[in-house]
Amino acid sequence: MMKKCSAILLLMLSSVFAYSQTAQKLKTAMSSFNADDQLNYAISSLYVIDATTGETVFDQNSRVGLAPASTEKIITAATIFDILGTSYTYETKFGIVSTGNGKSLYVEPSGDPSLGSWRWDETKDVAFIGRLKAALADKGITQLQSVIINASKWDYETIPDGWIWQDIGNYYGAGAQPLNWRENQFDLVLKSGSNIGDAVSVVKSTPYLYDYEIVSKATAAPKESGDNSYLYQPSMGSKNGILTGTIPAGQSAFVVSGAMYDPVNQFIKTIINHLKSSVNFTTADWSVVRNPVQNVDWVFTNRSPKMTSLVNWFLKKSINLYGEAFIKTLALENKGKVSTDGGIGIVKDHWKNKGIDPEELHLYDGSGLSPQNRVTTHAEVTVLRYAKNQSWFNDYYKAFPDAYNNMVMKSGTINRVKGFTGYQKSKDGKEYIFSFLVNNYSGSQYSLIRKMYKVLDVLK
């Protein structure tokens, strides 16, 4: 018995010694990091805990709220798993209603962010339209007047507070709507002149954009300059988006991606065009109603992939649209009414009961794109530790990107903000949970990342 107790004591002392070594190394690494010129006018926070015991290994500014950028997504993903579960699916329902002298297609959307997405075979636009077409054929529907969208449970907001004008015309700035289509994204194929300063012209868009045109004001830059273009939504009273900035010279098919100006119009015009061989629409009109129509003859329900699969893409590819859809879904399922503020309230209340002061979560969206968000590294680490003990943890963990510094962590990037948060197992078998945020740094992002990696390498 004495030998057994001695062995246990030796193991405990060894563990304490290992963590104290790590703490000292982190202190040294962070001292060097903080003294770097890139941090002269910045604030940084690093919080590291023992994943097993929850004991603090290192703490710098863990209770200071900072802009988290896309590291915020780990909070949204954990919340959606914990409240709605990994098997949750979105259901978009289609029915037939009597209108005027005929019948119209009636759509009850669910906010499904994957409808028409190219990421799964079953969600691709052609596959979805094929199922809808077959359902209408089974009901003998050959003529319809128009399309009606029921948005009675949704508010009017599609873009969260705090998103900036420079972002919302680009693919990563696509807001969540009652009915999302192809992730509310399009690809623009561009051609640039051979000389610096030459004009950039639009070759085509994929998919074809209905009732919408992109006017290019972009110019050609040096061949190794990369994509420095920005897409802007049309100004009031216009149907033209604007492309500005530069792309490399001498390109014949350079692709940039933008956010659809009107995803609902794009969806409806697309299905009318694809159904015309079997269904005659007497008009191409559509409307959004705020009061549900009664006596609907339901003909088809489209289901999304399971939440496990949606979250996998959400975290791995950092798809902002999914985060905004998830936040609104929390409001829909818990309050019966959709709003971003309602969903954020649910997030804060949920984590309040798990050790996070609501004041540590000043949120304006579900993705982290808003520069107004403020989150503490303590809050992020608390979420990650809680997740580790849940039945859905394996799905959550597998969704983290693995391309950053050979560590399991989610990154975040907006202007002068960089962050990493996740899990790390060291060579000696110790497990850590960490969050590292830097706001208002100077100089190159890539230079800063290398310096952040050097600090995080201590956990390896």
Figure out the total of helices. Answer: 11
For the record, the count of structural domains works out to 2
Quaternary structure annotation: single chain
Number of strands: 21
Secondary-structure class: alpha/beta
Radius of gyration: 25 Å
Q: So, the CATH homologous superfamily of the largest domain?
A: DD-peptidase/beta-lactamase superfamily
Which stretches of 5+ consecutive residues score pLDDT under 50?
9-13
Rounded mean pLDDT is 94
Q: Notable features of this structure?
A:
single chain; Beta-lactamase; 5-stranded mixed β-sheet; 460 residues; 5-stranded antiparallel β-sheet; alpha/beta; 2 domains
Topology (SSEs and partners):
Elements: H1 2-34, E1 43-50, E2 56-60, H2 73-84, E3 91-99, E4 102-108, H3 125-138, E5 143-144, E6 147-150, H4 165-168, E7 185-192, E8 200-206, E9 213-216, E10 219-221, E11 228-232, E12 240-248, E13 254-259, H5 263-275, E14 280-281, E15 286-289, E16 297-303, H6 307-316, H7 320-335, H8 340-352, E17 361-362, E18 374-375, H9 377-388, H10 393-398, E19 408-414, E20 417-425, E21 431-439, H11 445-456
Parallel strand pairs: 4-6, 5-14, 6-15, 9-12, 10-12
Antiparallel strand pairs: 1-2, 1-21, 3-4, 3-16, 7-8, 7-13, 11-12, 17-18, 19-20, 20-21
Structural description of this entry:
- The chain contains eleven helices and 21 strands.
- Helix 1 packs antiparallel against helix 11, helix 2 (73-84) runs antiparallel to helix 6 (307-316) and helix 2 runs parallel beside helix 7 (320-335).
- The radius of gyration is 25 Å and the shape is globular.
- The two termini are 35 Å apart.
- With 460 residues, the protein is of the alpha/beta class.
- The chain has a five-stranded antiparallel β-sheet, sandwiched between helices. Strands 15-6-4-3-16 form a five-stranded mixed β-sheet, with helices on one face. Strands 9, 10, 11 and 12 form a four-stranded mixed β-sheet that branches.
- The longest helix is centred in the N-terminal third of the chain and has 33 residues, at 2-34.
- It has helices at 2-34, 73-84, 125-138, 165-168, 263-275, 307-316, 320-335, 340-352, 377-388, 393-398, 445-456, and strands at 43-50, 56-60, 91-99, 102-108, 143-144, 147-150, 185-192, 200-206, 213-216, 219-221, 228-232, 240-248, 254-259, 280-281, 286-289, 297-303, 361-362, 374-375, 408-414, 417-425, 431-439.
- It has two domains: 14-86 and 307-459, Beta-lactamase (3-Layer(aba) Sandwich), CATH 3.40.710; 91-303, no CATH class.
